[in-house]
Amino acid sequence: MRYYGDMADIIRNSGALAVTRPREDALAIAEAAYAAVNTHGAVLAKMRIEGGELVAGELRRPISGRRIFFVGIGKCAVAGACAVETLLGERLTAGIAFDVSDIEARGLTKTEVLIGTHPEPSETNVRASGRIVAFLSECREDDLVLMLISGGGSTLLCLPDAAMTCADERTLFDELTDKGATIEELNTVRKHISKARGGGLAAAAYPAEVVSLIVSDVPGNDIEFIASGPTACDTSTVDEAKAVLARYGIAAPPDTAFIETPKDPKYFARVSNVLFLGNGDALAAMRAEAARRGYRADVAGDRIAGEARDVGERIAEALHAAEAKTALLYAGESTVKIAGAAGKGGRNQELALGALANVREDELVLPFASDGRDNTDHAGAIADVATLAHAKERNLSIADSLSAHESYTFFSETGDFLETGYTGSNVSDLIIALKS
Question: Can you give the pTM of this predicted structure?
Answer without folding.
Answer: 0.90
